[in-house]
Structure formats: structure tokens, C-alpha cells
Amino acid sequence: MRDVGKLLYYFKKWSYITDEDELLILSAFEPVEIKRRKSVLESGQTCKYLYFITKGCLRSFYIDSKGVEHIYQIRMDNSWISDLESFFVQQPSKYHIEAIEDSQLLQISKEKLEQLLVDVPRLERYFRILFQKAYVNALSRLNATMWESAMDRYNEMLKEQPEIFQRVPLAYIASYLGITPESLSRIRKQR
Prior knowledge:
By secondary structure, this protein is of the alpha+beta class. It has 9 helices and 8 strands. The radius of gyration is 17 Å and the shape is globular.
């Protein structure tokens, strides 16, 4: 399976994985290719998969009652994207997940994930850490939106993910930062 090595690398960072475990992991994940501007999840659908991005860039967003998009996540190579609430509760999602670039993903369903965690219990640690980080990141993002200036949020993004500015349209970055494209333009000129 193409690019499963990247996924195995991250599993091995946090868990001991045997050759037999690798075979079970390979059988649990399915490769998916998605073209730019195509969706893997639409609002109102139940999120059936966790996606590991081996190559590419995706965003998750919701559309408010006025038709304005609000970007919640931007994820690139070697990271995960999903609507965890919809995935775990198996209820309709409020979010869309769309490719910003042509992308290659590895997807795992809830049923296959649960079976994989039974078959390879050492992966419990990896996924516990992954979901803890997702929770902390969501809280940090909420706190930043409430208490940090737009300039501070921009500088943090520039420090943590400088490549995002070469791969993601500025309008999407502005939405993610919770500001208008015009405000982002002013901030960029001030730097």
C-alpha cells in the first residue's frame, strides 16, 4: 500500500509494532485519492472515517446561516483529519472536509479502528495521545481566538506551519485565523 510507511513511522514513534502488527494495520487502512476541491465529507453526512494524509492538504469547515465559510482545520502531509464528534457518536456532521490540493489519504472506518485496537492493543497508546492532542489543540485554538490578537495568531501560524502560506489560499488562512482577508493583508504588510 502506497505511503503506508509514513503511517507506520508515526505509530512506531509511540508504540512497539511487530511485523504481524504491520500486516493487521495494512489490512485495516484503505488508500484513497481525492482531487482538489472534492469532498470526503459533506455537512449532514455521518463521518465514517478517520483520514491520515500521506500527501496533500485538506480543510474542514462549516457554513453559517449567512452562507459564510468558517474553517476549523487545515491539515497537510502526515497528519490526521476527521470530524471526531460525528465519527465517534455516529451522528450527522456539521462540517465539510474538502481537499485543497490533490491528496492521497489512508482511511480507516470506526469498526476497523475498534477491531485494530483489539488486535494491536499497543496502538491504544498512540490513539490516546493523538486524541488528547486533538482536544488540547481545539482548546488552544478556542483560547487563541478569544484572547489573542489576530497578529499573534498569525505569527504563531507562521512559526508553527510556515509552509501553509505556500500551499493554502490566503482567504482560507484568514478564515482559519478568524479574520477577514483584508485584515490578513494588513497584518502581512506590517511584518
